[in-house]
């Protein structure tokens, strides 16, 4: 985790001073490497240090933390960029330095080996999630597929409709705020565990969001669409991460898969959205997302029906 944070600080400060596309490309490459190195290790760290009955609570706090950070960034980044293009990156680098201090401090802190379940009803370590892990990973991948499309292509669509940079940042912030709502809902209790319908709900919200953005031109409708998409993403992310750590076995491998699906969703979402926008229209990426969502809903139901007995 520590080398990853050092790379992140270097990338953020480099962004603030970047002068050309090549520098931006190399710095972005360094930054995403740092994310890929940090998140799986940190998530496994959480799993190892969570006593029985505390895993869901600790994962919820972790998810809420990075979602709040992303939401605040979305709300202010556009305005900060307007003041000075390097300001958002200086702020980000400073915050990563604080993360560095927190991680080093926490790693030296002794935690109790056991904890009260407090009604968490967490499954015993020998009980696995069965087919739901696979379904949750499908939902998780889909959520970031759709997010990759929005993050990279929606600003261009919004500018073509006369929406300002600050308002674009605000809408992306609403998506992340919706993700926070989904994570909070997942943290309220075990209502989503062991059930298929919460995963289909998450996927259905992504479908509705994509169709709204495809056909709408109102800023309010865009905001509603991104709120719904964020809620679905929050539920999918929370459940996929929990199911991967539930048995306390192969935690590093499972968190690696979890974050690889984040990267894979971003990559395929960005590539498909870019191709659709280039060869069709700026609305086309959201139709592509809707079609992919329908396919993955059918795949999820088929997978569940075939393997739920496991």
Nutshell version of this structure?
The protein has 310 residues and is mainly α.
Q: Please state the structural category.
A: mainly alpha
Query: Looking at this structure, what is the CATH superfamily?
Result: MFS general substrate transporter like domains
Average pLDDT over all residues: 87
CATH class division: Mainly Alpha
Order of helices and strands: HHHHHHHHHH
Write structural notes for this entry.
This protein has a single domain, classed as Up-down Bundle (Growth Hormone, Chain: A), CATH 1.20.1250. 79% of the residues lie in helices and 0% in strands. It contains ten helices and no strands.
Topology, pairings included?
Layout: H1 2-17, H2 21-48, H3 55-83, H4 87-107, H5 131-160, H6 165-187, H7 197-215, H8 219-245, H9 251-279, H10 284-307
Helix pairs in contact: 1-2, 1-4, 2-9, 3-6, 3-8, 5-7, 5-8, 5-9, 5-10, 6-8, 7-8, 7-10, 8-9, 9-10
Descriptive keywords:
Growth Hormone, Chain: A, 310 residues, mainly alpha, 0% strand, globular
